[in-house]
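User: Predict the structure for this protein chain, please.
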Amino acid sequence: MLAWDIAAEPGLWISGDSLVRERGEARTYCYCRYTKARYRDWLKKQYGGLNRLNEFWATYHQRWDEIEPLRAGIFERAQAPWVDWRQFMLASRGNVPTPQ
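Assistant: Here is the predicted structure, written as structure tokens:
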């Protein structure tokens, strides 16, 4: 092997019966409004400002509330936002509300 693109292999592959649909303690992803608000706060701390996030993600967000966590199936088009979402969820493990 001559090279390995580690950014393309984050171990985040998701299928139709993936962790996105899990319930209870095993849930890895949460998309409720509280988690989304905490995610945006986490991004603010990570990047310090929306311009820096836009530069790193190659996006054009005008407001923080425009940012939504990524869903399964679009990883290939948005690696940096997906990795940030996954990092946030790993850091928040156990602190994410379980949907009723």
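Residues 37-100 form one domain.
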